[in-house]
Amino acid sequence: DTSLPQCESSDWTPIPISNHKYPDMPIAKHKEEIVSLIESNSVVIVRGVTGSGKSTQIPQYVLDYCTQRSTYCNIAVTQPRKIGATSIARWISKERSWTLGGFVGYQVSLEKVSTKDTRLTYMTTGVLLQKIVCAKSLTEFTHIFIDEVHERTKEMDFLLLVIRKLLRTNSQFVKVILMSASINCKEFADYFAIPVNNKLNPAYIFEVEGKPYAIEEYYLDDLKHTVHFKLPPQVIEEPVIVKEMYDVAVSLIQSFDELEMKSNREKKTLGFMSERGSVLVFLPGLAEINYMHMCLTSTLNKRLQVYPLHSAVTLEEQSNVFLSPVPGYRKIILSTNIAESSLTVPDVKYVIDFCLTRTLVCDEDTNYQSLRLCWASKTNCNQRKGRAGRVSKGYCYRLVHKDFWTNYIPERPVPEILRCPLGTTILKIKMLDMGEPRALLATALSPPSVGDIERTILQLKELGALTTCVQTEENPHDGELTFLGRVLAHLPVDQHLGKLIVLGHVFGCLEECLIIAAALSLRTFFAVPFRQHIDGYRSKLFFSGNSKSDCIALVNAFKAWQICRQKGELRHPKEELDWGRSNYIHIKRVREVAELFEELKERVSAFNMHVNTQPSAVDQEYVYKQRFILQVVIAGAFYPNYFTFGKCDQGIAVRELAGKDPKTTIMLKNIPPYGFLYHEQLQSLFRQCGQVKSIAYDGPKAFVEFSRNPMEGFKTLPAVYVSLKMSQLKVPLDLNVHYPDELERQVEGSTAARVKYARVNVDYQKQTVEPVEISFGISELSKMIPNRLLSISVTEIVEVGHFWGYRIDEKNMIVLQTLTAEVNHQNLMDLPVSPHPELVCLAPFPCVENKGYYRARILYVSGDFAEVFFVDYGNRSRVPLKKLKDIPSNLRELPFQALEFKMCKMRPSAKSLVCGEQWSYSASQRFTSLVNGYTLLVKVNSLVHGVLHVDVFRYLGSKELVNIRDVLIEECYAEQAEESYESQQSHDLLKALLSDQIKKEEKKPASSREKEKHSIEMLLNKFSVNKFDTLAHKVTLHGPFSPYEVKCYSMTRISRFRCAVIQKESINSVVISDAPEDSFQQMLVAASLSVNATGSAVILEETSLMPPIPGLPALLGMLFAPAIELRLDRSGKYFTGVLCGLGWNKIHGTPLLPENDMELTFDVHFGVDDIAEINILRTAINKLVCECAVCPEQGRMVQLQENVRQKLLR
């Protein structure tokens, strides 16, 4: 079919003929000639300087030509960037007084402002490419203008390839016009040459003569009058902006006043009253724009209006760039290469070009992408130069030396098709059905290497987008397009995100996967305001809901925003912005995600994938099951981006942390002498992290311990993560301290020296600062555990195997009664301070008839009430603030009688972890039924951080003593586990203590301890915070640290010997081993990988930590790998591991994609039945994907989804 564009005369509305007056631009005098050339040639190449009117005028000339002849036309004009397409369409509609979306419109990824009457549509290169791929023809349009062809993006080169192919087959009458200011005309003319009489006729080239005004060029060598300091040499291998270069740019801008005043004197016009020329500064990225902005705003001359211009600016901010500045002010535009083409700001007089750009490249070894800073090409720099001289003489200042420009700056940029992944391009080729990708890409303007094409095809096969065979034969250069491949080709997202959507449909969590795909396709909506990284990190931690997943944090935050809007809480823009500010969420960006979410939802519905609008049958465990399924889907979509963690040496870690609890404690180094004097400063440094319970000083080290809510399970506190994040972000921890010599001079030397590096503990609960004895926990053990068997009463259950209680033996009951009597015989006074968390006080217990008072600790304050924890019994209650009383100091210091218990040698089963936070609802119910209201007998195994690790026994039925752990394991709620290193050490110590094998600890003489205590009190009184003198100086602390922090390592071969670095914005940028005693691997999945500039480190982005289930990494590998090969032991009876990958090349006898192969060792038993179950699940997944293409019945689809879910959860 070589017919004219499809259109019936009745289908289109003719444009009213008008005598539009075109602006006076260099292109105007060539109007008739250009239109004639376009109408008489298939392909025309137009080269004209920036500002000559190519982008705005030529399409209008053609439109008016067709209108005057009553000829139908449908004109497409491509722009490399959205901002260019939208702004030009708006400008034309305004110039011609047309409604935007009427005769002129635009279409960019998320937005379509056009109707069936639109005759001139500006669109991004990608939009036109998608239209052509779907239609397999150009005939939707009469004229296709491709602007800025010099940019040579991957999409641009592929678009040119497809247009060239279709012009020679089914679209011969469509007119194609290529435009640029800096195009290599001959290269493009030869590419689009047409065979005539056995020879090739190149495409017609039209050069637009003339430019608005002359532009003078200057280099660093010419700026000696402006630069009065030495500049470092520029090196081709080190593209960077040093601080001095920013200073050069600022000095230049300041010198423009003098330049203009001199020019005005020559023209005999008034100096400053004349309009000051605008400046356009080209910088490589947002960080550089922000720094330059800061440099300009800190200059003495404030008569500047500075506008940033980059892809993230709002429409309003973009429009401000075109406004005239306030009289007497100079407009400064700080832009990325977005202003290099498409956008022309008419009043720019000066261009300052750092000659740098950021380019996406593909690492040769790993094929991972990396955004690298590099020198811009001469083509790009000349394009930038052309932005000046539109309204008067222009000036271009290149901040490189002339010699460097001549000899080192490259002539042209490397085409993107030669340096970026080709996955999307190859899928589009398969959609076009134009033959083998290798053969078609060989006809590209710059053909990519055969090796790159082959590797991309193998990666698409690994993804499941292409079959491994073509018509039953293995072909490394080609594959048949699968259903998944067709879906991916139609979605405007990365291929792995497309697979996430398809797997989300299979497992019944499509909505969540659409949210993740939309959010990861755009810039993150999690805001990290300047100097508020910690608060932003904490907010993201909150939204992750203990999932340790960036993807799930995105889902939860998006849904929270949606729910607030549905409830009408964000009706006004201010309310919405305030909500965003308090939750550290960019409202503009989350709206963009919502738009893309809706677009993706609509696109996948064409493939029979629909978000389930029917409410699910929700039980107490449904939310947790759904979360686990989503985690599995994430692992499947982002295969093989799998990582695991190194092990920490528990013995070394315990010694480093001085036996402190790693789940509540961080360590600091470089503590100054007499560190305890500055404990209030240190406490305030960590106030933003959490409630500080105590600080233990030990020479040059200090250990900050945060309060743990006694009603929470054993997990590393968020405060510890946030503290370690401070270290990662290099937040300075400075103390104002005294010089030790001066301090000792002011007091009796020996008195002070006694405690210069003493072990001192600051307890904020008991409000004490005291010297600490060297202890191995023996005295603590002997006090708390008179013998290994204890009778107890349970008062509060925290979670399965974790509870509070008190001893009910006769001796302890007397202690409790005596304590209660002493408390209630006191003359109770009101609290001297405002109630706050961690304050120990006296509180009434509401359920006791005599309304007596008991010792309590405030957990939190809410309104006029406080939640308190009774420290002698282990239960809690809500008490009115006015009823809280002060506790006398003698009662505060007595040991608390409540005991915290943890059942030993037990961990949650896989079933419990899948169906709950740690323990499932049914496990919690069962445990409560076993222990609540019963007298229990516990056998003490160890004492770790004040918690008794015990075996719990109860009489069941006819006086049969049953171990509760055995019941939970038998009923599959729990499984056997190793005790931690500290627990084992304590167990051995306890065993020796109770068998009298070791002596009781000998205490330091009381007189020595009292002297230390006296010295500490005297120094605290004399050198309190408010008494710093002029000799005080700053000391910067090192840390915080935790020896339990772990590093991750790749599970694939390609990245195994590279350093793995988790992106600092990720929740998992800090990972602490909660259970270092576990022998099995825990897995981390990254949504995308990139490499650093040197290629030495792999950077993990948008990570998700998989649940700590033994065997899960191997299970996920076997479930989602294209092919697996099981490993056997020497006897051949047992499976020991699995090799996961794309499989084996039978022809060459080598692995197909060895770099992504994973060798996984089984850390649990996998039998033949388990492998059969995995194969059944793989088959069920494939069946459901195939059903998408053929089965329109929604009921059948839901049934298949439930089948897959149940097979996974089994």
TrEMBL record:
Q: Where is the Helicase ATP-binding domain?
A: 35-201
What does the entry list under GO cellular component? cytoplasm; nucleus
Q: Which Pfam families match?
A: DEAD (PF00270), HA2_C (PF21010), Helicase_C (PF00271), TUDOR (PF00567)
Enzyme's top EC category: hydrolase
EC annotation from Swiss-Prot or TrEMBL:
3.6.4.13
Q: Which residues form the Tudor domain?
A: 834-894
In this chain the Helicase C-terminal domain maps to: 265-435
* Acyltransferase recorded as keyword: no
- Catalytic activity annotation: ATP + H2O = ADP + phosphate + H(+)
**Molecular function (Gene Ontology), one example:** hydrolase activity
Which PROSITE patterns would you find in this protein's record? Answer: HELICASE_ATP_BIND_1, HELICASE_CTER, TUDOR
Q: Assign the protein's first listed, main location to one coarse class.
A: cytoplasm
GO BP terms: cell differentiation; meiotic cell cycle; regulatory ncRNA-mediated gene silencing; spermatogenesis
Task: Give the location in the cell.
Answer: Cytoplasm; Nucleus
The entry's keywords: ATP-binding, Cytoplasm, Developmental protein, Differentiation, Helicase, Hydrolase, Meiosis, Nucleotide-binding, Nucleus, RNA-mediated gene silencing, Spermatogenesis
Family designation: Belongs to the DEAD box helicase family. DEAH subfamily.
How is this protein named in the record?
A: ATP-dependent RNA helicase TDRD9
Q: Which organism is it from?
A: Casuarius casuarius
- Give me the gene this protein comes from: Tdrd9
